[in-house]
What does this fold into?
Amino acid sequence: MWIHPSRPPLYPDYLDEKDSKFQVWQTLSWLQDSSTAMVRIVFAGAFERHPRLKLIIHHHGALVPLFAQRMQYGWDYFEQNTGFKQPTDISRPYIAHFKKFYCDTATQSREPKLLEMTTAFFGSDRVLFGSDAPMDASGGRSFTADAIASVEGMDIPVSDKAKIFRDNALRLLKLG
It folds into this structure.
């Protein structure tokens, strides 16, 4: 199952506004909304109840690879200093459960370093090439070229790039 954010510009960033300003709805909120969905799915125990569940999150795993250590530290700190445990039955460390997601490489720009962080977090077997139905002014050619250049520019083994470009999707979708 693919998970993709879809927050419209009419959804305000602040309560006293009528709509999102400065394209925050797309540039940042899609990443926040995807990350929030991941948190809810993980803490609800979805992977424990459905161990064969395959979820693909768009946009290189949203904010999770970038803030994984901060997230785990925050949960640890909260539990240690308040005495309240997260309302979940999942095992610790909580961040390990996020590695059960798959993600794509769509970034809307050339981001090889960001994809290296993504691959380091999820593992090269869980990153899939993704153009994410690109909606650029060139009918998708620019976004697709950027996604290709991002993967090609990653400092990872060629065998891992082959997994990302082709092999992971074939395996996951049982096409090869």
User: Anything to note?
Assistant: The chain has a mean pLDDT of 93. The CA atoms of residues 109 and 146 lie 5 Å apart.
